[in-house]
Amino acid sequence: MGTALLIYNMDLLIALSAGISAFAAILVVSWPYVVRDHLAERMAQATSESERIRVRERSRLNAQNKPISLRSEPKRLYKLIVDRLNLAGTEDSITVKNLRMAGYRGEGPITAYLAIRQLAPLGMFVLAVLYVFVILHLDYPLFVKLAIVMAAASLGYYTPPLYVKNKIAKRQTSIRRSWPDALDLLLICVESGMGIEGAFRKVSSEIGSQSVELAEELVLTTAELSYLQDRRKAYENLAERTGLEGVKGVVTSLIQSEKYGTALSQSLRVQAQENRDMRMSEAEKKAAALPPKLTVPMIIFFLPVLFAVIITPAVIQFLKL
What we know:
The chain is an all-alpha fold. Helix content is about 85%, strand content about 0%. It is extended and about 110 Å long. It is found in: Cell membrane. Keywords: Cell membrane, Membrane, Transmembrane, Transmembrane helix. InterPro entries: T2SS_GspF_dom (IPR018076).
C-alpha cells in the first residue's frame, strides 16, 4: 500500500512538472505576440525629443544678435582704473603669455588682470584693518596687528598670479590627457586624405566632448591657418598657448612637413604613441605615490579605531573580574 502511494505521488509530481514545463514553453513562444514591443515607440519618442531640443537650441542661438567671440572686451571700471593709473604699458610679454596659456585672450583679460592686481591688495588691506582693529579687537601689540594687515595686503597682491598659475595647470592637465586621442583622430583624418586644416576642424569637433580646452585650441589653430600668411606661425602659436612638450613635438613635425613636404602620417603615429606612453607613465607615478600619501590618514583615522575595536573587549572582560 505504501509503495503504491509513493508511485502515485511520483507520477503526480512528474505530470505536474510536465504541465508546468509545457505551459512555460507555450508562454515563451507566444510572449512576443501577447506583449507589445515598446522599443520602436520609445525610439521614436527619443528621436522626436532630440529633434525638438535641436530646434529649440537652434532658435535660441539664432535669437542672439551678439556675435560669438573668444575675445572679451574690458569692463568699464577696469579700463578706467588702468587708464587713470597709466598701467597700459606695464604688462610684459610673460604676463600676456601666461594669460593666453590660462585661456584669457584679448585686451579685456589683460586690462582686468592689471586692475585686479592693483585692487586686490587694497581690498585685502581694508578688510584686514576692519577685522583686526574694529571687529575682532585683538589683544596684541600694534606692531603685530600691522604685520597681520601687511601680510593680508601681500596675500592680495600675490593671489591673482597664483590664480592664473592654477588655471594654467588645470588647462594643461585637460589638454595633456586628451592630446594622444586627438593625435589618433588627426592621424585617421590625414591618412584618409584630408588636409591639415580640415583635419584640425574635424578633430576639434570630435574632441570637444572630452576636452573643451583642446577643442578651443584646435579651432584657433584652424582659424590662424586660414588667415595667417606664415602657416608656421600658427603652429608655433599652438605650442606657445599650450606650453606642453608633447604639443611642441607635434608642432615641430608639422612645421617640417610644411617646409620639406615629408610624410606626416608616420610622424603622427610615433608622436601619438609617445604621448600615450607619457600619459601612462604619469598615471603610474601617481599610483606609486599613493601609498605614502595614505600613511598619515591611516595612522590618524584607521589605527585608533582598530585599536579601540581590538582592545575594548579585553578591557570589558578585565573590568568584570
